[in-house]
Structure formats: structure tokens, C-alpha cells
Amino acid sequence: MKFTVATFLTLISAASASVTSLTPDNFDSATAGKSVFIKFFAPWCGHCKAMAGDWEKLAMDYQSSTEALIAEVDCTNDVNQSICTENGVQGFPTLKYGNPAALEDYEGGRDYESLKSFAQDNLKPTCSPFHLDLCQGEEKEKIESFFAMSEADLKAKIEAVDEIVKKSEEEFEKEVEKLQDMYMKMMEEHENKLQEEKNNANYKLIKAVVAFKKTQESDGEL
Predict the structure, then answer these.
(1) So what's the pLDDT on residue 220?
(2) What gap in Å lies between CA 49 and CA 1, rounded to an integer?
(3) What is the DSSP string of 80-124?
(4) How far apart are CA 47 and CA 35, in angstroms?
(5) Phi and psi of 186, rounded to 5°?
(6) Which DSSP symbol is given to 77?
(7) Alpha helices in the chain (DSSP H)
(8) Given its phi and psi angles, is residue 33 left (phi above 0), alpha (psi -120 to 50 degrees) or beta?
(9) Residue in 61, 50, 51 with CA at minimum distance from that of residue 18
(10) What integer pLDDT is reported at residue 4 of this predicted model?
(11) 44, 11 Cβ separation under 8 angstroms
């Protein structure tokens, strides 16, 4: 297929330079202390392209905000798979909002007025280490207990969880490989059995005779 300027523009039309593009490298820093509204998309998605203009307009409304962020994540980029998977993205576009660490699904309209109205009502500071004054009860106590720990101890906790996740993913991959090997073996056995049944029944020969008889019938009709 010839790659033209028009093709290129079509591919990038679902995204916009004026909308913050999130990746694993900038996710934490870009969302820190903010209430977010994120569009998870695929460049080829028709619905994503259709709402791109309104999403860009909304992002411009909040461009200078220190409390809210309008952003997007390209889930077709392999680098972003961890973000999309962790947030349960299964279709496009998927819109989520709220605390970056605990995003909620947005089910409203995708036109500018609907998005703007929702953002005005919901993109407000929430309980987090950046807004401890909005926290209460057990949640506040938990955050305060983490504040009391040294940075080294906090990093150790993160690394411990990362190691568990890594091992779990490795074990999962091994089990998937076993299933794939089992599937290939079953498929081979199945195909061999079918071939054996056909050979024992002279399947191909019988079909050839039937084909010959049809030609004879055609010749007789002439």
C-alpha cells in the first residue's frame, strides 16, 4: 500500500499534540497531585477519531490547571501496554477519570459539552499524599504511616511488589507455553487421526469415483 500524506494524517488524527500523551516514563510526574480525565485510544479507531477534536478542545480548557489534567494514552504503542492493562482497557476509546491510582469508568457522552460538564463537576482534588487535608479515617492513617517511613524503606516495599509481579508474569508465561505445546500436540494427534480414518476408508478414492460418475452422467445427458 502506498503511504501518502493523507494516510499519515488519518493515522494520527485520533491524537493531538495539544493533549498530554501519557507513557510509563511520564505518567507519575504528569498526574502527580491531579484529578485526571484520560482517553485510552487506538489511532485506527473510528470513534476515537470522531471525538479527537472535542477532546483536544477540552484539554485546552485545562491546559493551565494545576489541579486537573486531560490526557490520553495510545494503547497500540507497546511501551504503553502496562498502563492500558493495569487500567483494564478492553475497547476503544475507553475514558477514565479521578485519582490516577484508582481510575473510574466514564460512561457519559463524548461530545464537547458533555465532557466539559462532567469535567467541571468531577475533576476536583481528592484524597492523596498531595492533598492529605482531604483524607480521613483509615485512608489518612495509612498515608501518614507511609510518610513516617524513610524513602529507602518505601522503595524497598515497591521493589518487593515489583519482584512478586515479575515472578508471577514469568510463571504465567511458562504456563501459557505449556498450554501452547499441549495444543500443538493435540492438534497434530487430531489431524493424524483424521488422516488415518480417511485412508482406512479410501476417502480420496471414493471421492474420485464419485467425481468420475458425475462426468459420465454429464456426457450421457449430451
Answers:
(1) 65
(2) 22
(3) GHHHHHHTT--SSSEEEEE-TTS-EE--S--SHHHHHHHHHHH--
(4) 24
(5) -65, -40
(6) S
(7) 5-12, 27-31, 46-61, 81-86, 112-122, 137-147, 151-200, 203-221
(8) left
(9) 61
(10) 46
(11) yes
pTM, to two decimals: 0.65
pLDDT digits (tens, 9 = 90+) for 104-120: 999 999 999 999 999 99
Residue with cell string 510463571: 171
Show the low-confidence residues of the chain (pLDDT under 70): 1-17, 219-222
Q: How far from each other are the two terminal CA atoms of the chain, in whole angstroms?
A: 49
Q: Which amino acid is at 48?
A: C
Greatest CA separation found in the chain? 98
Assign residue 81 a region (left: φ > 0; alpha: ψ between -120 and 50; beta: otherwise). Answer: alpha
